[in-house]
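User: quick one, sequence for these tokens?
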């Protein structure tokens, strides 16, 4: 299933990029070209594996674009650094394949769950449609009551409410009449 992941490997040593190391004057900063630029997850796996092992020959390493860059003595590259790097690369490749396979399996599972849910919903819908006419509840229309139809509530809960309401109505009418009189409209 891991056909989607192209393994990363060291394919070349870029002599033109090789330069003097800042660590020691007899060391070099060597650029080892990879088959492609690694993604963030691959880089994390690579560095995680390297962090688990100690090697006294390691002096500095980083990943830059599609290169693994190391500070080292040139005569130690083939004997010490390449086997050490290839071990970390193999680990990162394997973990990346696992991650891709897991992601694919999760996607397939979620798609299957969505299909199963859709089938269940369709079955429920069919059952509701089949049972609906037999169990249709009788709909009783509620009377429409206009808020302007009656001035007094049909059954006041409290006599003091009715008294206060009447008092407020009287005040409102008096204020309206005063305003109309002042504006010259009179009582309309």
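Assistant:
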């Amino acid at each position: 299933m891991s056909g989607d992941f192209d393994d990363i490997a060291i394919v070349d040593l870029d002599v033109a990029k090789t330069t003097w190391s800042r660590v020691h004057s007899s060391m070099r900063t060597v650029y080892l070209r990879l088959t492609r630029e690694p993604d963030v997850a691959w880089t994390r796996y690579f560095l995680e594996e390297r962090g688990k092992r100690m090697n006294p020959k390691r002096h500095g390493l980083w990943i830059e674009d599609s290169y693994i860059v190391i500070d080292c003595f040139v005569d130690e590259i083939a004997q010490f650094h390449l086997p050490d790097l290839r071990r970390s690369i193999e680990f990162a490749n394997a973990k990346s394949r696992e991650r891709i396979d897991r992601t694919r399996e999760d996607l397939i599972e979620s798609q299957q769950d969505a299909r199963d849910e859709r089938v269940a919903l369709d079955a429920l819908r069919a059952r509701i449609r089949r049972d609906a006419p037999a169990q249709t509840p009788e709909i009783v229309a509620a009377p429409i009551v206009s808020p302007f139809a009656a001035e007094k509530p049909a059954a006041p809960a409290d006599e003091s409410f009715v008294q206060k309401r009447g008092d407020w109505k009287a005040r409102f009418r008096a204020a309206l009449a005063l305003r109309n009189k002042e504006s010259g409209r009179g009582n309309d």
